[in-house]
Amino acid sequence: MSIRLGYLLPTREVVMRGQPEAGPLLDLAERAETIGFDSVWVGDSLLARPRHEPLTLLAGIAGRTKKVELGTAVLLPTLRNPVIMAHQVATLDQISQGRVILGVGIAADVSAIRAEFAAAGVPFEKRVGRMMEGLRLCKALWSGAPVDWDGRWPVQQGVLAPRPHRPGGPPIWGGGSAPAARVRTGRHFDGWFPTGPDAAGWAEQWAGVKDSAKEAGRNPDDLVGAVYLTLAINDDAAKAQQQVDTFMEEYYGASAKVLAKHQATYAGGEAGCSDWLRGYADTGATHMVLRFAGEHEKHMDVIAKIRASLGW
By three-state DSSP, how is residue 290 classified? Predict the structure, then answer.
């Protein structure tokens, strides 16, 4: 089984530190490709968790790299007009020559994100239906054929150009591990991309995603099983755990213990990390996107060493 490893750029973290320059982020993306990562990922938020705009930044990364896939972890399509988004994504896919993966989600129901939706002029209610209709419209436009659309965004004989480099557009992965999100992924998306749970829980939920795909008349083997993981590698396990806890609490403004119930994290030495990652691979995950709780260059090197030892 081929295991792919992705690297999440610290776009939120550098803004929090008051160092928003894009150059170092582009350097990290280029280094990730050089060291052997298969994909580079960027998060999304307008005002709730300020960071670089993901599609714009990925276009810059596309110009600096040749092979790595370029993903959103995750994009919030509901905040965007889908006609404009379809154009942006198609152009990005052309720039990267078909390396784009769209991880998508609906965002958590918290006050800061509700305020973000209001600021963007988008109703928070019915955001699932809005996202799904918007993605269907994107796919219709990506076909290159004239589109008539009688819905939230009326289109009359609209023809989008350029079309994406990849026929039909980039693969779409659904984020979220809630039951409805898993069913939605199985029925409509090309991959599943949650932030947890542990390997055993992931395996159980992944089986449900595949069952939903089968019930919808799809081939479940066509879906990609992915997972978004946060980690700190240090031989001093207590220091590593403190690093993860501090990172999570500063990032989300919530208790690390509460966050740990919803997001998979690892803190400890190299050997334990190797076993932890292999646990996900053994249960069917084929693409793991790694978010480091600081010390990015060091963690890249350690992961490259672990990967070599695992034969991935």
Answer: strand
Beta bridge partners of 33: none
Distance (Å) of CA 222 to CA 174, 187, 191, 264, 282: 14, 12, 8, 25, 18
Six-digit token pair at 266? Answer: 């690892």
Which tokens hold the place of 188?
């409509």
**CA atoms of 228 and 30, how far apart (whole Å):** 20
Measured in residues, the chain has a length of 312
- CA-wise closest residue to 88 among 44, 34, 37, 152: 44
Q: What is the pLDDT of residues 245-288, one digit of tens each?
A: 999 999 999 999 999 988 999 999 999 999 999 999 999 999 99
Q: Is the pLDDT of residue 1 over 70?
A: no
Strands 155-158 and 147-149 turn out to be: antiparallel
169 three-state secondary structure: coil
In the CATH scheme, what architecture does the domain 4-170 have? Alpha-Beta Barrel (3.20)
Phi, psi (deg, nearest 5) at residue 187: -80, -30
Buried b (16+ CB within 10 A) or exposed e, 10-31: bbbbbeeeeeeeeeebbebbbb
Nearest of 222, 228, 221, 202 to residue 282 by alpha carbon? 202
User: pLDDT digit string (tens) for 216-227?
Assistant: 999 999 999 999
Interatomic CA distance for residues 198 and 201, integer angstroms: 5
Number of other CB atoms surrounding residue 123 within 10 Å: 10
Residue 5 is predicted with a pLDDT of: 98
Which amino acid is present at 279?
Answer: G
Tokens of 16: 């929090």
